[in-house]
Specification:
Layout: H1 2-92, H2 96-109, E1 113-119, E2 125-130, H3 140-144, H4 148-160, E3 164-165, E4 169-172, E5 178-190, E6 193-203, H5 204-216, E7 220-225, E8 231-235, E9 243-253, E10 256-266, H6 275-321, E11 325-330, E12 335-338, H7 340-346, H8 350-353, H9 368-379, E13 389-394, E14 400-411, E15 417-426, H10 428-482, H11 492-523, E16 530-532, H12 534-552, E17 555-560, E18 567-569, H13 571-589, E19 598-605, E20 614-620, H14 628-633, H15 649-659, E21 664-668, E22 674-681
Parallel strand pairs: 17-19
Antiparallel strand pairs: 1-2, 1-6, 3-5, 4-5, 5-6, 7-8, 7-10, 9-10, 11-12, 11-15, 13-14, 14-15, 16-18, 19-20, 20-22, 21-22
Helix pairs in contact: 1-5, 1-6, 10-11, 10-13, 12-13, 13-15
The structure holds adenosine-5'-diphosphate.
The site of adenosine-5'-diphosphate (ADP) has 19 residues, from helix 13 and helix 15.
């Protein structure tokens, strides 16, 4: 067991040191590392989501740019086609009626056509057909005022010898609204010269709705804008609360440039708009989950570390507070570990012991040989006695002390022996107490023997005095009878007999004197009286009482009033009385039917009025009690119920107590057993 405890303590020590280092270096940095990690992950996720959003927006912007470019091409193609149609008509040189019919037909097919005019070189309208789908754009009157843009377009057409477009302009309408229109002027070539113009008026609004509305107008708002952003014509509506994307495209026409603008609103990706953001989001979730798991795991690990550190700290505290010295040696006999108790025991610092091998600094020089031999036997693999062995060590200051050593092989976790573990108990105090108790026991036993002998002598003298007196009286009487009644002289035969009787009488009275002197000697013990504290009497007998109590499995209980005055007594004899009473009480409980084995030693102030200023000592047992028959003979010398008893104990006790002027009494104890009490005078009382 010592080996197991010691090996685990050594492991604990190493682990503890390791832990302290790790924890010190990590605890400071761990927190900041975690914060850095969390910040990095959050930054990474935000960047990823932002990039994904941006990528998606750029995708959409590209799409819108492409659409706008396509729309511009569509418009341009449409315009070019219209020019071709009109040129075809010009080439046909139709009659006015037919021309009007053809134009009317075209006007009803093309919603963006508002009016087609024929003009001469001076710009005078020769013929004009307005769209049947729209209210007439110009009254002929208003048209006389002519529009400068139209004029310029036709001049340009003549100069270019091809179609020219006017800048757009606003034409107010009778209903209070108006139209933004644009015109294209086609020169009529006859025999290589310009003979007139065909003028087509477009409604920009209708250009947008008729040509682009179906394809692009569903999701976007399409408009023609001026460079300053003013909208000339708009088609389509924009839903609100969505992100706005805008694309612009220049529509370069001969004579003018239009800017086509397309606005599209797209919802900002909410949940999983497309694969990339979805992937990024999923990865982010995974990352966050892993992070959360990591944090949880780390928290668990921290908790486990903390628990382990607590357990180690507890073990270390246990190890440090052990009073048993512990020492580990490797297989070569070098010291690998010592605990504080061992260092304190031998008075050396751990540093001066670790790594040392035989002869150890705490070995007495004259025993080095013997100890070395013992160590050699141990290292050879011979198991030491389980109950330990005694040895003597020398402290650094030179003092020697006895130790009890328990040794066991030190087995590591793999089950291999790595050395020897020893536990040391400093038994000097134990030895001192044993010595003290032995001498006090010897002293008490000697006193007890003396007291018993004295009591016996006293009793014998008392008992022998009477027969001796009788012998003396009979001798004197016989002498008187032998004397001659006349002259008082005896006959010669009788004189010898007379002398013999005289000798008997002399010897009898001498024996009486001897016995009296022995009696006097025995009774003359009150010269040893001293002032003693009642508690110290109990303290003195306690070791011996405990010894017997241990044997008989009795619990000793003391009840002492601390304010008692000291008593004047023959200390040794009173101790003897207490011992006798305690021994009798314990023996009375040494019976299988006695389950409660408690002996109480009580000291208090005497209660009765006659014994004011006296101290009462009581011994209470829970034994079988005293029957009436036994009670009658209790103090009779040589009365005993025990096989090995002498029957002098109680009689001696009474003699001693009475010599001090006190009383020895007994009564039945509650709930069972007997109470013996005696009184002693206090020093003040005397
Ligand atoms: P011894 O102990 O040698 O027998 P004692 O004079 O001390 O002599 O005791 C006489 C007897 O008194 C004992 O043998 C025992 O029967 C009885 N006795 C003494 N003390 C007790 C007690 N506490 N309880 C019961 N009996 C007792």
């Amino acid at each position: 067991m010592a080996q197991e405890a010691s090996s685990s303590l050594q492991n604990t020590h190493i682990l503890w040191q390791f832990f302290k280092q790790i924890t010190r270096s990590f605890t400071d940095r761990r927190f900041s590392l975690w914060i850095a990690l969390v910040l990095l992950v959050v930054a990474l996720l935000v960047t990823l989501v932002w990039l994904a959003g941006r990528y998606e927006a750029s995708q959409y912007q590209d799409e819108l740019d492409r659409d706008t470019a396509d729309a511009a091409i569509d418009i341009r193609n449409g315009f070019d086609q219209n020019v071709l149609i009109l040129q075809n008509l010009q080439n046909k040189a139709l009659s006015q009626k037919l021309w009007q019919a053809e134009i009317s037909d075209l006007l009803s097919q093309n919603r963006d056509w508002l009016r087609v005019e024929k003009r001469d070189l001076q710009g005078i309208t020769l013929d004009a057909v307005s769209s049947p789908l729209k209210p007439a754009l110009f009254t002929d009157k208003s048209r006389i005022g002519e529009h400068v843009e139209t004029m310029q377009a036709c001049l340009r057409a003549r100069r270019l010898n091809g179609p020219a477009y006017s800048r757009s302009y606003f034409v107010p309408q009778s209903n209070g609204l108006g139209l933004e229109v644009m015109e294209v002027c086609l020169p009529m070539i006859e025999r290589g010269n310009t003979a007139g113009f065909t003028l087509l008026t477009y409604s920009l609004q209708e250009v947008l709705s008729a040509r682009l509305g179906e394809t692009y107008g569903q999701r976007n708002q399409i408009s023609f804008v001026e460079p300053d952003g003013t909208r000339l014509a708009v088609h389509g509506n924009l839903p609100r609360a969505k992100r706005l994307f805008t694309a612009k495209q220049l529509l370069d026409l001969p004579g003018t440039t239009l800017m086509l603008r397309m606005d599209g609103r797209r919802a900002v990706p909410v949940l999983l708009p497309n694969i990339l953001p979805a992937l990024v989001t999923a990865m982010s979730f995974a990352l966050v989950s892993v992070l959360v798991l990591l944090v949880k795991d780390s928290r668990l690990r921290l908790q486990a570390e903390r628990d382990l550190a607590d357990a180690l700290a507890f073990r270390k505290a246990m190890e440090d507070s052990l009073v048993t010295g512990l020492r580990a040696r490797d297989l070569q006999g070098r010291i690998t570990y010592v605990n504080p108790a061992f260092c304190q025991m031998v008075g050396f610092e751990p540093e001066s012991l670790l790594g040392k091998s035989a002869p150890m600094p705490y070995w007495p020089p004259e025993m080095v040989g013997e100890y070395q031999q013992r160590q050699a036997v141990r290292l050879a693999g011979n198991a030491p006695p389980r109950e330990g062995f005694e040895s003597v060590f020398v402290r650094q200051d030179g003092t020697r002390f006895p130790v009890l050593i328990f040794e066991a092989p030190l087995i590591n976790v793999l089950g291999q022996q790595t050395g020897w573990m020893s536990a040391f108990l400093d038994i000097s105090e134990q030895r001192r107490i044993e010595e003290l108790s032995r001498s006090s026991q010897e002293r008490l036993q000697a006193t007890a023997r003396l007291a018993t002998v004295g009591e016996m002598a006293s009793l014998l003298s008392h008992e022998l005095n009477q027969p001796l007196s009788a012998i003396s009286s009979y001798a004197t009487g016989s002498l008187n009878l032998l004397r001659h009644p006349d002259d008082g002289r005896a006959s010669p035969q009788l004189s010898d007999l007379q002398m013999a009787f005289e000798r008997i009488s002399e010897q009898a009275s001498r024996a009486g004197k001897v016995i009296n002197s022995v009696h006097d000697f025995v009774r003359r013990r009150d010269q040893d009286k001293e002032v003693v504290k009642p508690q110290s009497i109990i303290d003195a007998v306690m070791p011996l009482v405990q010894l017997q109590a241990h044997k008989l499995q009795v619990r000793i209980q003391t009840e002492m009033d601390p304010r008692l005055l000291p008593v004047l007594c023959d200390r040794t004899m009173v101790e003897q009385v207490l011992l006798n009473l305690a021994r009798n009480g314990m023996q009375a409980m040494d019976h299988p039917t006695c389950h409660q084995r408690t002996l109480t030693l009580r000291i208090k102030r005497a209660a009765s009025s006659q014994s004011q200023g006296w101290v009462e000592f009581s011994v209470l047992d829970l034994g079988l009690g005293i029957s009436d028959e036994v009670a009658q003979n209790l103090f009779t010398p040589f009365f005993t119920t025990k096989a090995e008893g002498m029957g002098l104990g109680l009689s001696l006790c009474r003699t001693v107590v009475e010599q001090h002027g006190g009383h020895l009494e007994f009564e039945a104890n509650e709930p069972c057993g007997t109470l013996f009490r005696f009184t002693l005078p206090t020093a003040a009382e005397i």
